[in-house]
Amino acid sequence: MQEPMMTISTIGDLKKKLSEIRQGRSVGFIPTMGALHEGHLSLIRQARQDCDILVASIFVNPLQFGPKEDFSIYPRTLLSDQKMCEQHKVDILWTPTQRELFPTSFQTSIEVQPLSQRWEGATRPGHFKGVATIVAKLLQVVHPEHLYLGQKDYQQFRVVEQMLSDLHFDTTVHLSETIREKDGLALSSRNLRLSPTERKAAPIVFRGLRQAGQMVAKGEKNARDIVAKATSTIQSEPLAQIDYLVLCDPKTLEPIEPLEKTSILLVAVKIGDIRLLDNIFLSPSE
Ligand code: AMP
Fold first, then answer.
1. Atom of ligand 1 nearest to the CA of 43
2. How far is residue 89's CA from residue 68's CA, in Å, rounded to a whole number?
3. Ligand 1 atom showing the smallest separation from residue 33 Cα
4. Structure confidence at residue 141 (pLDDT)
5. pTM value?
């Protein structure tokens, strides 16, 4: 598509526009909650290479926030998000309204279990129910051939991938690598809320993961020792509070022991009030 980007709010307008322009061409979809950064843009770039038509959405989904979480103060930066999408050749930016997506009569939800109950789901009950439900709703409107999600939120990727398979969606999901600051901190819209001291402490999370990776490269296969190494590194930072740090099977997200095939080290750390998620894949060295 070469026309200027359109920003569309209503489901009716979006469906109409998509049916006009689709004509057998492939659609790629990038759902986001806005406050866009290089992580989001890397998904957009990948989609731009693969697909004829690009749809991105911005919707801060109330269903995936717990009652004590940061829904009301989640950063909302629509004007600059619009500009970034335009510059990266998004064709349609969909900005649905809460009123249309969740009218008071709304009753349906999707649960992907047991995947949703572990790790992030254990700390944030209902979170992945909210994620699966909103993603299913957005896909029902856009019907993309391709969906792009980031590795930073790996459990979210697995929940969505499982849902797509279980519910026979005709959409292929692509996992896009985590984009980081120079000091290793995974980009996240929530990083904006770290104080300067917290921001200085935050790179310890990836440093812990990397040290575990170095151990594995030297031949370590004992999962408990690998996790212990990452734990002690992260705990060396007084502001960092580990919520979970686990070496898991990338499909089931169940803990593994020993490391025999490519696995994923998942971590959630609180720095002040901000939860930081990160992960790396680890493969046993020969
Ligand atoms: P969000 O706006 O936080 O809901 O994220 C929208 C999409 O961008 C999700 O698929 C995230 O996994 C992805 N994403 C967020 N941060 C990053 C990052 N640092 N690198 C790659 N993808 C990311």
1. 22
2. 37
3. 2
4. 98
5. 0.97
